[in-house]
Amino acid sequence: MGFPLESWDAAFADIGMFVGADGGAGWYTAIAVVMYIVIIVVGNNDEQEKYNKHK
Amino acid sequence: MEEQIAAVIAQAQVTNTFFAEAYYFLTIPLMLLIHVGFLSYEMGATRVKNVLSSGIKNLLAFAFTIVTFYFFGWWFYWALPTGFTGTEGYMAISGIAYANAIALPWGESAQYMGPNMGDHASGVFWGAFALFAATTASIASGALIERIQTAGFVILAIVLGSFAWIIAAAWGWHADGWLVTRWGFHDFGAAGCVHAVAGFFALGVLINLGPRVGKFNEDGSANHIAGHNMMATVIGLLLIIVGFFGFLMACIILPGEAWSWYGGEGTTIYGTPMTLSALGFNIVLAASSGIIGAWIMTKDPFWMMSGALAGIIAVASGLDIYFGSTVIIIATVAGMIIKPCADWLEARGIDDAVGAVTIHGTIGVFGMVVLGILASGYPALGAFAPEDAATISFTGQLMSAGVMFLMGFVPGYVVSLLLKSVGMLRVPDAVQVLGLDTVKVPAQAFPEGMSSSDSEA
Fold first, then answer.
1. How many Cβ atoms are within 10 Å of B66's Cβ, its own excluded?
2. What's the whole-model pTM score?
3. Scanning B52, B96, B108, B306, which has the fewest C-beta atoms within 10 Å of its C-beta?
């Protein structure tokens, strides 16, 4: 964490500034992917429970 | 003086860059109107007892497709134009190495998948394509209403929106795509990679999903299951037409940028010349003619608005090069044939609740093939192409249409079969009779009163 650039001018040059520009972008992606797999699994389990009440 | 000229040129370039960025950015909210339309259209076509479940399904198709298109869908488009081998194409803007460099949200590629002061194009291109992807997923959604499980549907939407259509687009909607370079395939408005793929994906799913409870009688005859709000459906379809303007204007490659084909003229994604002005003629003529064709055959407002959609899809492949009167003829015929085609499918036990297989699948194929007849011999790629590059042809369009059919039908059928085997595809019949909203939605569509006559809720 912490601002990775050394000057305000650098924020307008090349890539510029964004959270993850210092190389951490991949970690954010990995966390997001795991989150979404969990969401689909939890969502499906929740749905099946509702259907099972009517079988 | 030279310095002043250089300064003016530099400033003009900045203006051009920001215009191009704004142009593609604004296609995104326009395309979101397609989803406003889908939401209204599908919820209107659903019975009261299932209204919110249809809405939720629609919203999730959009949402999950967008997110997964960011994770991996965009990568497929750039990696696979030459085929599953992922080799680099003639224009050197394709292949696995290229896709790894620009289309992955991690590593060195991440700079092109987020804010970047040196990049005024990647995000807006990605955004436009992501909306194309979400549109594709939503097309299949309507056919499956009132009996598909939500989580299972989300998985199908991800497969369609971030895998099947985008690979078809890599092959047929990319200057390095093998359908284009080898067979001269031309499909300006994505009748193939969006509409045909989505329509036949829905068909593959419908075969495994089965019909709604009460749709067919024991003798095979079909009952019409009316939606609860025809007004919402018809208005929704017209909103989809509005959103189509955003979709089709996003199909143009603007001039004057590093990523443009030419400095001074707009082109299709294949680098062949075209103008936005051509779309000004052809989109409205197509929609209007489709409405009229469907009116003369059905007198039904649902089919008339579906005719508008079918009219545009029927000419989408050649929207860049068709003459206005040609558009009128093709789109009118498309409007006339959608109801007979839908009836043909229903007679074979397929319960397509909104005619999506016909309007998008059948008409998508019709449109691709008609272009092969009318534009045979026209160049498929721009002036940069090798001299022996394939041109548009009837056989090229026909074979490519076959590929689009398979790219939709096979994943739709296989994935839905897998979901069915693990009990994630079809809502139990008892729940269908009771109503999906009662069972799984913690809200009511009409809390002050409005219920399905056939609900036990």
1. 18
2. 0.94
3. B108
